[in-house]
Amino acid sequence: MNMVRLRIVGIIGMLVMAGCLTSLYHEQAIAQEANSRSVPEWVAEIEKVFIRSEDCKQCHERHYEEWKGAREQTPDLKTFGRVDAALLHGTSLESPVFRTVLGLWKQTNPTADEQGRCLSCHVPAVTVFPQHAEKMVAHVLARKGGFEGIGCSACHLMNGMEKGLNSPPTFKLQPGNTLYGPYPNPEENLVHPAAQSEHFRGANYCAACHFDKVKDVAQKNLPGEILEGTICQDCHMEPSTGSSTSRRGAMTRAIGRHWFRGVVVA
């Protein structure tokens, strides 16, 4: 009888110890996660306007995975930010090619304004926070994470295109709670207001940064008889059918993939 009691006490003791260890591990994991997301004040300032794409993932998981390349993990993607000629905007700051070119250009001692213009397509947020341009460049060259380049909010805060003294790029950002997209009747939600922007269905939306691909960056359609009525998004955002959100019962309609297939010329 005493042996049985001792065994029971021993089992209870082991369970209590296991529970304590599990709790300790969980607390350490939370602390590590908090430390890994500790960011400089200037990054936190940017993220108040340009929310992180991980936050968008909660409702837009499919597009997030396409943007980040999570659905096509290969060594080529991890190294160069592309796979099978998929040009992932989610790797706009991680590409070793971009970092190398940026580092070489930095040796020419560009001004803060020139650095801001250089980053404006890889980090659209710099057009709203030009005072942080030099910090962004240093952050990228130091291979530090912490802030995004071309994220969900960077594209979906664009609500206009215009040529100006500093063009290119020609996009206009509208900081605020409203996120823009191509749909005339965006679904109502409790997270953020949504509105249509006609520029999402125009070649000039892409040409705002890919200005070397067209002669007129303001033109909404691609020139030429063969491409008449076609825009960049028709090919580079593979057409599909489904929902833009992960919410049950969400509207099903035509959507575009967010992995931006193209042709990479070495």
Describe the structure.
It is a single chain. This protein has 266 residues and is mainly alpha-helical. It has one domain. It contains eleven helices and eight strands. The strands form four sheets. A two-stranded antiparallel sheet has the order 1-2. Helix 7 crosses helix 8 (133-141). The model is unreliable at 14-35 and 80-85 (pLDDT under 50).
What's the arrangement of secondary structure elements?
Elements (H helix, E strand, L loop, with lengths): L1 H35 L4 H7 L5 H5 L3 H8 L6 H6 L1 E2 L2 E2 L8 H11 L5 H8 L13 H9 L10 H5 L1 E4 L9 E3 L5 E3 L12 E3 L6 H5 L24 H5 L2 E4 L10 E4 L10
Parallel strand pairs: 5-6
Antiparallel strand pairs: 1-2, 3-4, 7-8
Write out key terms for the chains shown.
266 residues, globular, mainly alpha, two-stranded antiparallel sheet
